[in-house]
Specification:
There is one protein chain. With about 475 residues, this protein is an alpha/beta fold. The protein has a domain at about 30-50 and about 105-200 and about 280-475: Alkaline Phosphatase, subunit A (3-Layer(aba) Sandwich), CATH 3.40.720. The chain is built from 17 helices and 14 strands. Strands 1, 5, 6, 7, 8, 9, 12, 13 and 14 form a nine-stranded mixed beta sheet that branches. Strands 2-4-3 form a three-stranded antiparallel beta sheet. It has a two-stranded antiparallel ribbon with strand order 10-11. α12 packs parallel to α15 (about 355-365). The chain is globular. The two termini are about 30 Å apart.
Amino acid sequence: MKRRDFIKLSANTALILAFAGLSSPVYGVGLTTTPKSVINLILDGGPDFRHLIVPTYSMDNNDANSYAYKFWEARGTIFGKSGVDNLKQVYSDNYDDVIISGVACGILKKCAWLKDEINAGRVAIVNNVLGSDNRNHHHSSIMMEHGTLDANAHNLDVSGWVGRGAKALGENVVSVSREIRLSSNGPHPTNIKSHDNSCVVVNSDSRNMGLSNYDTQADLDSDSPSYKWSEKAILSRSLSSYYSAKAPLVSTSSIFRKPIEHEKKLRYFSNLLKERLDLVPMPSALTSLNTKDDINELDSSYFARQILSLYDSYVSQDILDMRFASIEYTGWDSHKNLIDQIEPKLEDMFGTNKGFDTLTREIKALRSDSYDNSVIVISGEFGRQLKSNGDKGNDHGRGNSVIVIGGKVKGGFYGDPFPSSEIDNLTTKNKDIDGKTSMFRVYGAVLDWQQAGLGDKVFDNLSSQMLEDGVDLSGMFV
């Protein structure tokens, strides 16, 4: 919801009343169709997507000059194995066969939901992507999130590509992470070196957001009378009473009038949001993601909490004016013990009954078109080197892949997943994936899916950015 204009929510109140007679509590309280929405997931630390999707290594593949042979030879220490037979067994034990754009691949068994989506044609994997021309986490993140290789390494105050997209659409970014990401920063109206976040709504704790009135009676009814005198209840009643009593006494010309009006609008917004969420309880499948010892509990409780807030953002999408959502998953800087440190994160995102499997299933239950009108963009500031470092991990590398998922995504590889030009590099330390496509071309294609021409409004000189020969990102959506 645009924070500068809370009062427009009266229209949503009318909408609630108009739909009150419908049988479904969801359709009775908000949108009946989902606007085209982008979920931007940033994986801080440099994810190794070459561990997620690998070349097949079957028992009858004995060509010592093949990409598969060299790949597994270069990365065997990640699994603590060496030798052809042992490495072929590692492949068999850890990967399922999958065909992507006619290429025989293996996908990590722990990521079964992603495999299903790939087979259904709903996952685009853009390979050989470059979002940064260096291996410095901090500077590379600024480049990726701001949307240019010319980003100043010390300026965190600039706008981000997501915020500029939301501003151009006249809608909002809903941030469910602990802090607002640079990518969500909206553009400043006059200063390109600064930003304006009037297009950002922070929704990191959706069920406790805002200034809703504390319901003492609900606590009494739940046999918890002690809550009547709790600090939260006392503070809520005191603040509400104070502003109600103070409002008639403060003139419109007073410098104190602004906080009075802000409290009024914020409380109205909070109550409207609370009423909406009270009608739509959090599905148990989602709460299980953050329930200790549940079979579907995620490895990262922080990522689980963001998934829950993202669901609530879809429930209240019309109230929040959400067209973008910002989410993060940290801790991908895997220099050692990649299997223990990184595979649980991949499973959190892509496993059966895990993060995105559960989220997409539940938002489709809200509105049948929600997945068709949503795109999940997954990227990191850079990737990892081709050859493992001998410590069961690998080090910083520039090139990587970007994963784009959605009901209207035209799935497949965009760019060569295992280029023959890499074969020699697989045997040499300190070699990167060769960047051939600008990450900003990928983001621009996603923006154009939302609205034709939006990519050019958000990125400068987009058509001049790198694009791998034979790759057509304009065909990434059906």
